[in-house]
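Q: Give me a protein?
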Amino acid sequence: MIVKEFNEHVHTLAFQLPKEGKSCCGDSFYIKTTESFMICALADGLGSGEGANESSAAISSLVEQNYDEDVDVLMQLCNKELKDKRGATVSILKVDFHSKSFTYSSVGNIRFMLYGPSGAFIYPLPILGYLSGKPQKYRTQTYSYEIGSKFIIYTDGLVLPGIKALLNKGNSVEDLSRQLDIYTKKRTDDLTYIVGQLF
C-alpha cells in the first residue's frame, strides 16, 4: 500500500506491507497536512495480525480525531487509549511550517531521522518500551529544520544500513522510496515507512 500526501510545504509518501503470510498489518499510520502544519503518527502494535492491528489502528484513529493537540498531549491520550489492549510502540511528528520547526516524541523502536541540505542530521533517541496504559515517561523534543530537509520514519520491520547516505542521495520522496524497495523484500515483520521532504 502506498499513500501520498502533499502541499506547497511538504511532500510525503507512506509505504506499508504486512508480515509474510499475514493478511492484516500490525502497523498503522495517519498523516494530515494543513496550510500551517503537518502531523504524522506511526504505531506498531505488539506482535502481528489482528491483535496488533487493533492497538495500532486505535492510535491512528485517536490522532485523527485530535490532530490539533500538541504532541505531548497526544502521547498521553495514546497511552490512555491502549489500556486493556495489547500495546504499541508509537511515534508522533508535528511540523510547523511557519516557524520552520518540528516536534517529535516516540516510545519504542520506531526510528526517525531528518537530513538537511547543509549536512545537519537529526536523530532523536526514542524511549525504550511501549504504550499500554501504564504510567509512561515521554521525551518530546522540538528542532528547527532547513528548507529542503528530507526525513524518514519507519517501524522495525525495515532494516536499513546507511540511512544518512540514503537520505542524502534521494532527490525526491519517490526517489527515496525506489531506493528503499530492495530493503522491503527481506522483511520478517510488518513493515511501514514514511518518507518526506520539507519546502
Observations:
- The chain has one domain: 2-198.
- Residues 49-65 form the longest helix (17 residues).
- The longest strand covers residues 37-45.
- The radius of gyration is 16 Å.
